[in-house]
């Protein structure tokens, strides 16, 4: 199946990044976000990113149209808040709006794809397409195939990912998939180390950077991801894997309750 027109729902840092790489591949993009100012901020961020990459800014952005609601496309990639109920409602609405041939993909980092497929009448055409932040830079795309996802759908998404310059890796439809099954407990344990006063935030991150050769420490990475998103993913892991070891550290919850969400709020474990 040829994918030439992509609807991206959600214009945050992930949705904007996805729109950018799809448009840079020469495809047409429809970008939708109901939040006031979201698409304007996305275009500003895309322009800065494209300039840094030395790409043709105006030509790439010209392929992206802002739409007021869902529109038909060959593929929808959903990149909204990490909340199963919100995503399921969106998939049900997309199922009734997009043509039967369209593939419905989610950029979810933890929510099982099967639950999203059950919200539609086309479970064979629902799949996970998990990009990594920053999308224009990082090469990995986790492709999550639910039990009902067809081989044709998986093949089309894998082919698209490669055409976008990404490296697709297939994972089973289990809460957290591969990436967050490993990453989120690592971040959570770093928060516990801070909570237990083992070391200060900068020291914890320095250990990861210099000792593990990580490009960014776990607390700085949590700030980049969003501490509210980290809590949501840990809760999905705890519920889906039925293991209390995945429960979010209380300090993580305290930061979220105080509005310290990371980079997007200007303050998390660090100030921005």
What does this structure look like?
This protein is an alpha/beta fold. The chain folds into 2 domains: 5-172, NAD(P)-binding Rossmann-like Domain (Rossmann fold); 181-265, N-(1-d-carboxylethyl)-l-norvaline Dehydrogenase, domain 2 (Orthogonal Bundle), CATH 1.10.1040. The protein contains 11 helices and 8 strands. The chain has helices at 13-24, 38-53, 57-61, 84-97, 113-117, 151-163, 179-195, 201-211, 218-225, 227-241, 250-257, and strands at 5-9, 28-32, 64-66, 75-78, 103-106, 126-131, 140-145, 167-172. An 8-stranded mixed β-sheet has the order 3-2-1-4-5-6-7-8, with helices on both faces. Helix 6 links the parallel strand 7 and strand 8 (167-172). Helix 7 (179-195) packs across helix 9 (218-225) and helix 7 packs across helix 10 (227-241). The longest helix has 17 residues, at 179-195. The protein is globular, with a radius of gyration of 18 Å. The relative contact order is 0.10.
CATH class placement of the largest domain: Alpha Beta
Query: Radius of gyration, Cα only, in angstroms?
Result: 18 Å
Instruction: Give a short account of the largest sheet.
Output: 8 strands, mixed
CATH topology of the largest domain: Rossmann fold
Instruction: Report how far apart the termini are.
Output: 44 Å
Low-confidence parts: none
In order across it, which strands form the biggest sheet? 3-2-1-4-5-6-7-8
Note the overall shape.
globular
CATH architecture of the largest domain: 3-Layer(aba) Sandwich
Average per-residue pLDDT, rounded, comes to: 97
Order of helices and strands: EHEHHEEHEHEEHEHHHHH
* Overall number of strands: 8
Number of helices: 11
């Amino acid at each position: 199946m040829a994918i030439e027109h992509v609807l991206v729902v959600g214009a945050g840092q992930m949705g904007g990044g996805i729109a950018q790489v799809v448009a840079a591949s020469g495809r047409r993009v429809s970008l939708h976000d109901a939040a006031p100012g979201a698409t304007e901020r996305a275009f500003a961020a895309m322009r800065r990113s494209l300039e840094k990459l030395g790409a043709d800014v105006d030509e790439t952005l010209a392929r992206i149209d802002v739409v007021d609601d869902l529109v038909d496309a060959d593929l929808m990639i959903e990149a909204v808040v990490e909340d199963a109920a919100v995503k399921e409602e969106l998939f049900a609405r997309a199922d009734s709006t997009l043509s039967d041939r369209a593939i419905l993909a989610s950029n979810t980092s933890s929510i099982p794809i099967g639950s999203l497929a059950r919200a539609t009448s086309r479970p064979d055409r629902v799949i996970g397409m998990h990009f990594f932040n920053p999308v224009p830079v990082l090469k990995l795309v986790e492709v999550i195939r639910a039990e009902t996802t067809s081989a044709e759908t998986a093949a089309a998404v894998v082919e698209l990912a490669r055409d976008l310059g990404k490296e697709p890796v297939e994972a089973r439809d289990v809460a957290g998939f591969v990436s967050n099954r490993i990453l989120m407990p690592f971040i959570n344990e770093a928060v516990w180390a801070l909570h237990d006063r083992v070391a200060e935030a900068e020291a914890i991150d320095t250990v990861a950077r210099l000792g593990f050769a990580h490009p960014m420490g776990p607390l700085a990475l949590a700030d980049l991801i969003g501490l509210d998103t980290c809590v949501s993913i840990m809760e999905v892991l705890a519920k889906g894997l039925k293991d209390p070891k995945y429960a979010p550290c209380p300090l993580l919850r305290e930061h979220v309750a105080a509005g310290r969400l990371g980079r997007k709020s200007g303050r998390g474990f660090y100030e921005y």
